[in-house]
Amino acid sequence: MVNYSAIAASVAIGLVSWFYAAIKPPKPSLCGSEGGPPVTATRIRLRDGRHLAYKEWGVPKNKARFKIIFCHGFSGSRLDGIRASPESMEELGVYLVSFDRPGYGESDPNPRRSLKSTALDIEELSDALELGSKFFLISLSIGGCGAWASIKYIPERIAGVALLTPVINYHWPSFPKKLSQEAYEQQHVGDQWSLRICYYAPWLLHWWMSQSWLPSSTVVKGTTHLPNHRDAEYREFSFSSGIRDERRKVATQQGIQESYYRDMMVMLGKWEFDPMDIQKTPFPVHLWQGDEDGVVPVSLQRYLCQRLPWIQYHELPMTGHYLLIDPGFGDLVLRTLLVEYSL
Question: Is residue 31 in a domain?
C-alpha cells in the first residue's frame, strides 16, 4: 500500500530544502582571504575582530581644529569625501576621515549589523584614531542611518552633525499614514516591492533582487526617475564614463549582499527607535535636501524637520539628490557646520 503521507512529507521537506538553498546568499569574499580581494587600505581592528578601512583628508590630525567622520552613501566607499576645496580645509583646519561602512570596500562585513552597531563602529573608529572626546559627523544619503544612530546612541561624543539628503524610512511611526502612503505610492513599483521586502521579509532580499522577472529596486539598477536635470546628466555621464561601474566594483567587491542589500535592510527595515522621538540635542544638527530629489521624498523630509525644530533645515531649490556634484557645496557644508566654532 502506498504511503501517501510519507510521500507528501518527503516532497515538502525537499521543497523546503530547495527553497532554503535558493534564498541563502553566497558567503562574502573577505578582503585578505584566499581568493578574496587584496587589502590595500589602512584599517583598524574592532573589538569584535572585524576591520574598518578608512582614508584621511585635509590637514594633519595633530594640527586640526576640527575632526570630522564622514559616512558615505549607497554605492560609495572610503574614497568618497565631501569634495570641499583644499583651501577651505586648510583655512578651517579640518581633518576628515571617511571609512568603508561594514561590507563595503575593504571593511569586513557585519551580518549582525544594526543601527546601534553602526554608531558603535563610528565611536570605535574615533577612539582608534584618537579624535578626542567629541567629533563632528557628516553623512550622505543612506549613510544617514549612521548619523541618526549616533545622535541616538552616542550623543555625548558628537560635536555637530550634517545630514546630506538622508534617506527616509517610510515606516517611522511618527509619519502621518496618509503622508507616508502618498510618498510611497509615488515610487516605482520595483522600489515599492523592495521596500516591502526590506521591512517584512529581509531574509528574502538577496533572492528577490537576483530574479530578473521580479520588480526590484531602481536605485540598485540605476534606473530611478530623476526629475532634476543635473542629476540626470550626472548619472548619464557616470554610466558613459565608467565611473558608476568602477564605484560599484569597489563598493561591492566582497559581495553585494553585505554591502548594498545589508544597507537596505538596516535603513529600510524595522528601526529600533523613531528619530522623531529624539529630544533636542546639545549640538547643532543641519539637514540639506533638494526640492527635486528623485530618491528621497521632499514631503517626508519637510515633515520630519517640522517635527524636530532643533534641526536646521536647508532646502535647496531646483536641486536633486546628488548634492555633492555642485561646485562649492562641500565648502558650504563645512562653513555652515563649523561657523559657530570658527569665530
Answer: no
20 found inside a domain: no
Query: Taking a C-beta distance cutoff of 8 angstroms, is the pair 75, 141 a contact?
Result: no
Dist. CA 202–CA 197, nearest whole Å: 6
Residue 338, number of CB atoms within 10 A of its CB: 21
Taking the C-alpha atoms of 5, 6, 12 and 18 in order, what is their torsion angle to the nearest 10 degrees?
-160
Task: Kindly report, residue by residue over 101-114, the tens digit of the pLDDT.
Answer: 999 999 999 999 99
Say if residues 184 and 195 touch (Cβ distance below 8 Å): yes
Tell me the average pLDDT across 278-300: 96
* Rounded Cα distance, 124 and 132, in Å: 12
pLDDT over threshold 80, residue 8? no
Q: For the chain, what is the domain count?
A: 1
What's the pLDDT tens digit per position in 158-174?
999 999 999 999 999 99
pLDDT value of position 23: 74
Residues in the chain: 343
Q: How far apart are CA 156 and CA 133, in angstroms?
A: 8
16 grid coordinates: 523546503
In a domain, 15, yes or no: no
Q: Please, which pLDDT band fits residue 343 given cuts at 50, 70 and 90?
A: low
CATH assignment of the domain containing 71: 3.40.50.1820
pTM equals: 0.93
**What confidence score (pLDDT) does residue 339 get?**
83
* Strand duo 66-71 + 94-99: pairing: parallel
Q: Quote the CA–CA distance of 44 and 47 in Å, as a whole number.
A: 10
Instruction: Look up the domain containing 337 and give its range.
Output: 42-342
Task: Kindly state whether residue 7 falls inside one of the protein's structural domains.
Answer: no
Q: Which uninterrupted H or E stretch holds 66? A: strand 66-71
